[in-house]
Amino acid sequence: MINLDPEKIISSLCEGGPVAKRLALYEPRQSQLDLLSLIIRGFNEDALVMAEAGTGVGKSFAYLLPAMHFALANKEKVIISTASITLQQQLFEKDIPLVASSMGDVKIKSVIMKGRGNYLCLRRLDDVLHEPSLFDFEENELTQITEWAKTTKTGGKAELSFMPSDSIWSSVCSESDLCLGNFCPCREQCFILALRREANNAHIIVVNHHLLFADLAARYQGAGYESAVVLPPFNRLIIDEAHTIENAATSFFSSEFARTGIFKQLGRLYSRRRANERGLLVRLCAMLASSEDPLDEMASAIQTVKTSCEELDDCALQLCGMEGIFRLSPSVDESFLKKSLFPNLKTLRKNILKLTDMIKEILENLDDGDAAEPAVWEIKTIVRRLENTADICNAFCKYKKHENEVLWIEKIQSFKEPWAVFTRTPIDLAPILKDSVFKPNKTVACVSATLAINDDFTYWASRCGICGIDSRLPLSGCFPSPFPYASAVLLASPMDAPLPDDEYYQEFINNAVFNLTAAAGGSALILFTSFQSLNNAHQSAKAKLTAMGIRCLKQGEDDRTRLLQTFLSDESSCLFATDSFWEGIDAPGETLKLVIICRLPFRTPGDPVHEARREVVEKQGGNPFIELSLPQAVMKFKQGFGRLIRRSADRGVVAVLDARIQKKSYGKLFIQALPQTKTSSSSLANTVKDIENFLY
Fold it and tell me: Which residues on neighbouring strands pair with residue 218, listed in sequence order?
């Protein structure tokens, strides 16, 4: 292995260096150079790294420089994984080309890879085109996709000039378990194979966390580390936005089903409108040599599955009630489960297996030529998916035996009618992450703006499994933001705010949100921890703020991306938001002058996965509030605070309306986790004046 030269690489980011000279607004940042030095050590020492880099440190350049130099010198691939498509695009389109241009005449090849569902499958498109369309809009969209397919180089959905409906795109996109590989008639033109060939010859591959886990999980489960799986073989990895990997892994290693998904799979097998029949089973029956046609029998079995699915859905929604979530826990009253839920789950499982057995029996009687048909391959895949649903049904019925999993039902509200989602999730991800991410790789550098609590990585490290691997003690460091928070930010917390369990708390929130937003003239991001509180405050303030010329935007009114674009383009607007808007928003300058945190972001008591993890801590003799809930809330609080200052010239106010930050002993942990700022602790009326004086 050729070690990196720290002095040479660090000098490129110093004033007058080749990277610095290419930055129009270059500012020397010691914290960036220190982070760069730590990641260089990570490569040279085959080490694990955890680094917290505050906003404005310039972490992308700090990990790209050593990654690109190492990949070039050692002819090794470096994978860079991030949680957001926005950062993926920025790295690939802006940061990597800039760093590469600073390295002289050498050529650095980089590739961006997204999940397979983002790419067109030409074979599946051809299959759909040979089936009759049930609706006119389907025909129009397919025509547009077909024309686009003739000219696109990547087959990426993002290139389309329109947003295809989910039903159409899901029938033509690439899916791993539907891929025919070497037997595909469109193999030579395949966009996924072309992308993989590119990736195989690349130095840097930019992926997202979900794609990374798809690859690592397959290797962990037996695919090995020496050959290509989802990604080419690698053992150097940089994880940006690393604070999200537990959630990303939780999502990836969970399994679920819902009525909507089952109906989609059944519709792919068979659907009928008037006399118009289509689907994979229609094509399967056309292959049969015998005069018998089992299509009617299978269509009847499909309808039986649909009926039992609807009955289960009704039962599940009743269980979810007003709360919207029901978890199967040791303390739950089983009377209704035994009377209604379990019988419905068993009926659905029985009807699914009856259908799949019927289909498998027909498949077994096909001759070798027909058995190799793409339609047959896809039918087998759908059969496996339906059987997985049957497995989840069985797990729910035997939930007491699944001690290491959380089994729960959630009500999803839509514009038409609600439906229930049945989910099984592993409780402890740390052992899986340790064995799949950190043990097999020589260098893993985890970087984020929020990994530590008061410079202590204990909480994050314990959740993600980075510690306790042989003698590999991780390298770590906290690199503070260079932004002038002490002069640029006012942290305000009204002393007359009631505690969240006070009956007048929501009334106070409604009043405070209006007055603070009015004082700032808009340009406000108002963060909640519940939609109910959000809707209440929005309804209370909207008319009054609109009359003042302040546009009120609300999460859920529009697509997240469009909503954010509207907010960013209108400096007098305010955005009422929750959960996903606590992080990943970049609103520099006059766009955002005020962030209101209505409530400290503790997980709601109804979160089934969080509650199960709390119970585990308690069983082990620990304190679930201190060990889990509090550090989790502090890290999310730091993310919300971090929305305000995105550039060195930014300034503004963060107002916290939760009295616990002042009145509870643990409140100081939230304040200590933030950089030093100006402060205001007075009545709401005086807080409004302080904000006006600070901003204007």
Answer: none
Q: Which residues contact 619 (CB under 8 A, 6 or more apart)?
A: none
**Lowest mean pLDDT across 129-133, 150-154, 156-160, 666-670:** 129-133
Q: What span, in angstroms and rounded, lies between the C-alpha atoms of 100 and 185?
A: 38
CA distance 296 to 280: 14
Is residue 187 packed enough to be buried (19+ CB in 10 Å), middle (13-18) or exposed (0-12)?
A: middle
Convert the pLDDT of each residue in 83-116 to its tens digit.
987 789 889 999 999 999 998 888 999 999 998 8
Nearest Cα to Cα of residue 379 among 351, 359, 358, 357: 359
Structure letter (DSSP) for residue 627: I
- What's at 216, amino acid-wise? L
Residue 662: which H helix or E strand, with range?
helix 660-663
Residue ranges of the alpha helices (H) in 225-341?
245-253, 259-269, 280-287, 295-320, 335-336
**In angstroms, what CA-CA distances link 338 with 70, 331, 398?**
60, 15, 11
Q: Which residue has the tokens 């990277």?
A: 19
Closest to 672 (Cα-Cα) out of 648, 637, 629? 637
Tokens of 568: 């960013």
Q: What is the DSSP string of 425-465?
A: EES--HHHHIIIIITT-SEEEEEES-S-BTTB-HHHHHHHT
CB 635 within 8 A of CB 450: yes
Query: CB-hemisphere CA count at 13 Å for 442?
Result: 15
Q: Is the pLDDT of residue 138 over 90?
A: no
Q: What does pTM read for this prediction? A: 0.89
Q: Which helix (H) or strand (E) holds 348?
A: helix 342-364
Q: What is the pLDDT at residue 92?
A: 94
- The secondary structure element, H or E, covering residue 271 is strand 271-273
Nearest to 644 by CA among 451, 452, 489, 534: 489
Task: Say yes or no to pLDDT of 559 above 80.
Answer: no
pLDDT tens sequence across 319-333: 998 788 999 988 888
* Cβ atoms of 410 and 423 closer than 8 Å: yes
Asked if residue 353 has pLDDT above 70, the reply is: yes
Render pLDDT for 14-62 as a digit per residue (tens, 0 to 9): 988 999 888 877 788 899 999 999 999 999 999 999 999 999 899 999 9
Cβ pair 589, 686 in contact under 8 A:
no
State yes or no: pLDDT of 187 exceeds 80. Answer: yes
Strand order in the sheet with 325-327: 255-258, 419-426, 405-412, 325-327
The chain-wide mean pLDDT, for the chain, equals 91
Contact yes or no for 637/600 (Cβ under 8 A): yes
Question: Which of 81, 64, 72 lies closest to 22, judged by CA?
Answer: 64
Helix (H) or strand (E) holding 584: none
**C-alpha neighbours within 13 Å on the C-beta side of residue 570:** 19
Instruction: Tell me the pLDDT band of 334, cut-offs 50, 70 and 90.
Output: confident
Only one residue has tokens 């994979």, namely: 280
Q: Specify the 3-state DSSP secondary structure of 371.
A: helix
CB-based contact 199:111 (threshold 8 Å): yes
Within the chain, what is the greatest distance between any pair of CA atoms? 86
Q: Which residues pair with 420 in a beta bridge?
A: 411
3-class secondary-structure state, position 551: coil
More confident residue, 304 or 365: 304
273 to 264, 279, 307, 408: CA distances (angstroms): 15, 12, 18, 35
